[in-house]
Each structure stands twice: as structure tokens, then as C-alpha cells.
Amino acid sequence: MNILVVGGGGREHAIVWALSKSPNVKKLYCAPGNGGIAALAECVPIKATDVDVMAAWASSHAIDFVVVAPDDPLALGMVDALEAAGIPAFGPRANAAVIEASKVFSKNLMERYHIPTAKYQTFTDMDAALAYVRAEGAPIVVKADGLALGKGVVVAQTAAEAEEAVRSMMADKKFGEAGTRLVIEECMTGPEVTVLAFCDGEHVVPMPSSQDHKRAFDGNRGPNTGGMGAISPSPNYTPELAARCMDEIFLPTLAALKAEGRPFRGVLYFGLMLTPAGPKVVEYNARFGDPECQAVLSLLESDLLEVFLACREGTLDKLDIRWKREAACCLVLASGGYPGSYRKDYPIEGLDDAGRTATVFHAGTRLAEDGRVLTSGGRVLGVTATGATLDEAIDAAYASAKHISFTDIQFRTDIGRS
Predict the structure, then answer these.
(1) Where exactly are the structural domains of the chain?
(2) What is the CATH number of domain 327-410?
(3) CA separation (Å) from 292 to 91, 128, 236, 346, 398?
(4) N or C: which end of the chain has fewer CB atoms below 10 A?
(5) Of 163-177, 246-260, 372-386, where does mean pLDDT reach its minimum?
């Protein structure tokens, strides 16, 4: 089959890497791709959000199957457009992807179907939002309703910090239209766990649990980022918790979406908080998390293309999806200044040496005309290693990352240990 993967980050590199192992893949394309993906797939210079151009290109290039990986094109209806053009695609349609595209929708869905989550209120009026913050006090969580590159959440430790978050989102338009509506919710406590799950509209098959590290600096300090590293599985996610989450969260969520006329086919991301009162939903995503994807897919033994096809065809219950009995760690190497402003186009050294002991997934890279790999984004690389134990995987990822250097390199030193 000729396969097109939409996107150009570390998540898409991991998906392309896993698909490249399938004997049923004839040719791989990625749009727009990046400097590392280019070694495995033909990169096509089309923006991931250019729905019409992407569908037209796939139609004219005999593409048999498209994997839509990022959140924005899913929310824009790329799967709908591809299917309308007669091209099978992996990922939820827009009316199901709204579970990530609108936090107001997802919180209201959880309330209607009694899925455990934090107490919350939604706002379109800034003065009302500010009054609620003052009444509730801190700590408190302020969330932009729409998509904001994983950065639209502020966990405010003081009321003043929360008020500033409200103003920056609603008055200053920090996240554009994504912040015109807000969710303000109680600050839950407990370990955070991510569970990615394959879904075919009827059935849900969880992958190994994972744990993202959102804050920019060691000790979980600093601003939220798109993710500075991830481990899998999470040591906090026991079989007993897994069974409870399946009964109280995973199956009810899939059933709720179906009941609303929004059957979900693709990867559903469950961001969970293991609170003293039990597991609760922090957020949903309508796709693989990044960098959780890199860690989790490094443990997959089954053919990823077969899984994707089963999700679309409604036959997920017929598959026996196999995973390595190991652990994985993905360490993100970022540009200095991320998630704020940063410079690009620094040469990256040591990739071959690091690649001998780990899989280096490219996120923000590009190929120069002379063949050098240059930095081109905030999160540059995801050095991913596996091991018999979590400690071994973490040690291997850090040991491999030591080979890599570029100007202003930034990374956390406590992934999996904080």
C-alpha cells in the first residue's frame, strides 16, 4: 500500500518509523515531514492544515491510506475530506475530534455521562471568569477552550496568577480564538498518567500507560510545554487502576461519543489524574500524544498498519495487539528559550553516534542543501531508548543523548524521576 502520514513532528516520525516495518507498506510519504523522516519516507511540502490541497494530492498520487496524526487537521475535518474523496484515512472525523478541539465540549460531555473529572465552570465573559477565580481561590486551573499547541493550560498557584492567565487569554488573545472561551477548574492532586487507546467506534484497546513531563525545567518547574519527555509504562498505573479506568472512563467515553452521534475511530488520549478519590480525566486528545507516542510505539511488536486498518474497519476486537515486556524513555532535546522564543538553523552533531544505542526521532529539524541536519523548531529531537526496566531505559536515553550537541541545547535531567 502507498501510505501518507500527515504531520512533521516527533510523533509523526515515530509513526512513520513503525509503519516502515510493515510488509504491507509499498511506499511511505509524509507531509510536510522533517529532516529525520526524510530517511524513511518521501517528504511532501504541504502544510498539515491544508485540507483541500492534501486531499487533492493524495487523490492524484494513488495513495491507498492516509494517517492524519496532528490535532489541527483532525479538528479541521481532514479525515472527512479524504473519505469524501474516496481515500481511507486513520483518525476521527471532525465531529469526534471536537473532544480535543473544545475543552468546553469535553467537560460538558463528561458531566452529562458521569465520567469523573474536576469540578469546573465555563466562561465567555472575562469579568465573570475573574470573579469566579476570586471566589474559588488558588490553586486553580485556567484552560483555553481551543487548540493551543499543548500550551493553553495554566496551573495557577495564586489568584493573581490565575487572573493574569484569564486576561492574557481573553483580553490579550494569547491563543487567538482558542481563548475566547475558558474552562476554569479545581486543581486536582495526584500522579498524572497518560493512556493512549486504539478505538474503532465500538471497541477500545488501551496501549501501555505513559507519563509525560510537561513543565520546561527540572522538578516540574517553569511554563508548560508540548512535552519535555515521556516514560512508558507509568509505575503508578497498576492493573487494578487499569480495570477501574476501563469501566469508569474508557468505555463510558467511547459510548458517550457514539450516543452523541460522534463515533470515535483513531487514537483517543486519556490524560488522567490519580487523585485520592480515584482516577479522573484531566483532558482528552484526539490523537497520539507527543512525546508519549515515541515511547509507547517503541514497545509495539504488532504491525501498526494492521491496527490502523482495524480501527477504521471496526474490527479492532479481532486483533491481538502485542507489546514488548520492557520499558521506554523518550528524552526531548529542545532549543534554548523554548517554549518561549528561540533561534533556528543550528547544525546538529552526533546523531549517528546516538542512533547506535537509541532511536532518535526528529521533531523540529530540517535538511540543509549540503545535507546537514539543522534545528528548525522548539522541540528538536526525541532520544528514545528501551530497557528491561524503567531505570535501564532512562539511563540508556540519557547516555545516548550525550552524543548530541547543538547551540543552546536545552533538556530536563529528571525525566522519569520526578
Answers:
(1) 2-93, 119-186, 192-318, 327-410
(2) 3.90.600.10
(3) 17, 36, 16, 26, 17
(4) C
(5) 163-177
